[in-house]
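re: that complex we talked abt at group meeting.

here r the seqs, copy pasted straight from the sheet so there may be weird spacing, ignore it
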Amino acid sequence: MIEQDIKYLVPSNIEEAVEFCSQFGKSARFIAGGTEVVPMITHGRLKQTYLIELSRLEQLLEIKQHERCHNIGAAVTLSELQHSPLIKMYWTALAEASASIREPQVRNLGTIGGNLALGVPSADLVPPLLTYDAMIGLVGLKGRRWISLEEFLIGPYKTALQSDELVVEIKLSKPECRLGSAFMKLTKFGGSGLSIATVAVALSTEDDRITDARLAIGSAGPVPLRVAAAEAFLVGKQPSLEVLSHAGRLASEAADPRDGSIRASPIHRRRVLIPLASRAITLAAERASDQTTGATL
Amino acid sequence: MKISFKINGYQYSKEVSANMSLVTFLRDVLDLTGTKHACDGGECGACTILLDGIPVNACLILAPAIRNREVITIEGLAENGELHPLQKSFAENSALQCGYCGSGMLLTAKAFLEKSPDPTREEVKKALSGNLCRCTGYVGIVDSVLAAAKDIQGEVL
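got the structure back, here u go
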């Protein structure tokens, strides 16, 4: 263990967390689940002297149901998202993406806020949240502001967070027509490792025809992104084999994987996006049509 | 900082530092060496403990994070000198060879059986997917968890 003198700060609310952060500036960082930060300490790589604990702030721990939206607190864990009946029912791809991350013990610690705030290109929760047009609630010295997830993610490991800001909640607005959604991920050993590529799809259907399509890819470029070309192509179509493979190719063409990754070559990532997208579309379409024929929720 | 917490039913009040992960704190400060220290990255599950009943990696938690919470380590699994059904079952089925993964396996399995008292083989495997064993393989371990589940259910009935 490297000799460091780290100060652990326990704020009693969000405002105090922000105050600590502005008081200590660059020598402070937030800690929530700790799955990223604690190994940095253990390996002597933490640059900051102050840690500001977020994982026990009640305001960050709830999933709130409102009439038009669901708000997920930033310190809600991946396990909670994976098992929440509400998330599974309305935001299926988010529950699936949460379940796909790391080991069960790690999912009991890791948080949705942590998955977003670090701006990691392979953050698995991002593609589903992009398809749901998620809004990110940030709190800083100047108060609260909302920003779309698309604007929040600026580049690899770069977000729109100001130095005094933290992610406090994620807002998912209920769409006019219920969405069926699905998440597909390829990892190197078929296990819980880091993603080679991911696809999230959310669809509405009417009589088996797609009426609304959202498709996002992850781990396939500097930032996860929505694929407008594939979305426009899917609307009005039935998910036939030709439609699926063409949409898959459009998803693949939108990828911009980097060279020199130890996980996968660009060509492999582009290639696997085609079946991942096809499968995600198929599953999302099944789920969308189940909802229209089944009981309304 | 000075914090209060409970471990295996005992109340503690101790000075802790954020320089130290919980696994190091348990082993080096409290001398509870039943919790094993290996990967320091949450990959192997050897350091699994129960924090308010939930299995987590003690290498991914800082010591100050356990204030006012309850930790169960492997030392707290047997009660009044009586082995937990999982411990008996692991012994009967020779589930462990070197035993290094055992503490984590047992605690993960304990929390799992409390939630899923009558699991399938597949469910057990999934529940234990965050715990690596490098010697016996997993057959005996999974068998033991299934046998313990039956044993515990028998007791309840």
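couple things i noticed - The CA atoms of residues 3 and 67 of chain B lie 5 Å apart. The longest strand of chain B covers residues 2-7.
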